[in-house]
Design a protein that fits this description.
- The protein is of the alpha/beta class.
- The chain has 10 helices and 13 strands.
Length: 325
């Protein structure tokens, strides 16, 4: 197990890219909208975009449909400077994910089209085509494990990454609508967690991995003791608890006036990893990730809301500071 790969600032990200549609102006409802704004979405693509905003390298491994939506996503990856040489176009009936969501907190509607998703067609051949020696760390989100052949491909990528000495980073990112059953999700996500060096999830996700929402904190602690070098247990407004080297680090959040309830997790992971890559101490890295989460929910969009280093520093300089954990 090694964390040295993070310092190389070059990440291989496995998982989906999709198109996000949001009604304009902010606060508008989907059903009453005259105008929809399009942007890049998908948790893995959002994380990659956040990393490139901090000057890190990021390459995405996934599949997109060979149609206008897939081409849009490819162009968006180019816009954010994300290496897409391992993004494969596929024909047939599979389609790139499409999400509609409102930029509002009260009664926020979200509609996600993931039936027959193109990214679930990622194969072992796709991940075996990657030269892992080019990268320092591998990142994947839990959704990639929800269906075959993507599940087997992701576990194969774990094997290849570990063999090449990469740090393996796992964002639990449980989305119930992607899985055939809760039992399958519990078993597969727990297996992925046991193979990871860095694990990030919220209280509900760790509870889900434990098979009991009341045992999530114990699950996070056990993973840190048994296999992972760093485990971050996020508690929403309650901040986070991070386990590493036998220590327990409690941190707060940076309160902001939020525009939307989504994107915080992607922003946190990108900011957290970029901070570690830049040599920040673990507590500071968690706090910088938390600040990025706050910035993302205070702006429209997801990938488009990711801050760069200068914007993060400006935010931190002007904010009264995090809450007490």
């Amino acid at each position: 197990m090694t964390l040295d790969g993070i310092a190389k600032r070059n990440f291989l990200v496995i998982g989906r890219v999709g198109m996000d549609l949001t009604p304009e102006p902010a606060g508008a409802k989907i059903g009453a909208a005259d105008t929809l704004s399009a942007g890049m979405g998908g948790s893995s693509a959002n994380i990659a975009a956040g990393l490139t905003r901090f000057g890190c390298g990021a390459a995405l491994v996934t599949c997109v449909s060979d149609d206008a939506v897939g081409w849009f996503c490819e162009n968006q990856l180019d816009r954010y400077g994300i290496d897409r040489r391992h993004v494969r176009r596929i024909g047939g009936e599979e389609r790139t994910s499409l999400a509609l969501y409102e930029t509002r907190l009260e009664d926020c509607e979200r509609v996600i089209y993931r039936n027959n998703a193109a990214d679930f067609q990622m194969s072992e051949a796709d991940v075996e085509a990657v030269d892992y020696s080019q990268f320092g760390a591998l990142i994947t989100a839990g959704t990639v494990f929800a269906a075959e052949p993507s599940r087997s491909a992701a576990f194969r990528a774990f094997e290849l990454a570990r063999a090449a000495g990469l740090t393996v980073i796992f964002d639990v990112d449980y989305r119930h609508y992607s899985w055939p059953s809760a039992k399958v999700a519990e078993e597969v996500l727990s297996r992925a967690g046991a193979l990871s060096d860095v694990i990030v999830g919220n209280d509900e996700e760790f509870g889900f991995m434990a098979g009991d929402h009341g045992k999530g904190l114990a699950k996070a602690r056990a993973l840190a003791e048994d296999s992972a070098a760093i485990v971050v247990y996020k508690k929403g407004p309650g901040g986070a608890v991070t386990y590493a080297d036998g220590e327990e680090i409690a941190t707060g959040i940076y309160p902001v006036e939020a525009l939307k309830p989504i994107g915080a997790g992607d922003g946190f992971l990108a900011g957290f990893l970029a901070a570690l890559a830049d040599g920040h101490a673990l507590r500071d890295a968690v706090l910088r990730g938390s600040a990025c989460a706050s910035i993302v929910v205070s702006r429209p969009g997801c990938a488009a809301a990711m801050p760069d280093a200068a914007q993060l520093d400006t935010f931190l300089a002007g904010h009264p500071g995090p809450t007490q954990p």
